[in-house]
């Protein structure tokens, strides 16, 4: 977890960047801006993995959401974008601070904050582009062991595009014929006329 800069560190950094001293009014404006920023709720992006080999019928994303239940996660498709959002709240840990003075304040009460805090809490949001025409009904989602898995079709509401078969001109300039069969492709030798046109 990165610590937020203190007022004096921020003032020093701004002075260094500007190459001059700050006036009293500028320092006050900077302090107000810091208070406003600290009061704003922070939105974080949960870590994720995306599986898309470019050929399979579905695309799958997996999001890391430890400690959340299905009723705490919102999944939606808005303007061609998959949006996963929600809020992760810090929950009391049963038995934390019960062992011999750990988690005790000077007055003898239980401490309200952990000694080390690396887990992220608060509002989260992650957005991914999905294929055109994909809707919420096309999604399949499961939440197991703190991992949200969401899959969607590569071609929603339609079958994948059919491959196009190349047309081959015969040597006499006649009608185009369908592509070569497997057996004729293996034995195909270009004529001198077509070989002379090839340039590498």
β-strand percent reads 25-35%
Helix and strand composition category: alpha+beta
Q: Write down how many β-strands occur, each being a DSSP E stretch of 2 or more residues.
A: 10
What gyration radius follows from the Cα positions, in whole Å? 31 Å
Overall 3D form: flat
- Poorly predicted regions are 99-106, 179-200
Strand order in the sheet with the most strands: 1-6-5-4
Largest sheet: 4 strands, mixed
Walk me through this protein's architecture.
By secondary structure, the chain is of the alpha+beta class. Helix content is 20%, strand content 26%. It has helices spanning 7-18, 24-39, 182-186, 192-197, and strands at residues 43-44, 48-51, 58-64, 73-78, 81-88, 122-129, 140-144, 147-153, 168-169, 176-177. The strands form 3 sheets. It has a 4-stranded mixed sheet, with no helix packed on it. Strands 2-3-8-7 form a 4-stranded antiparallel sheet, with no helix packed on it. A hairpin with a 2-residue loop joins strand 7 and strand 8. It is flat, with a radius of gyration of 31 Å. The model is unreliable at 99-106 and 179-200 (pLDDT under 50).
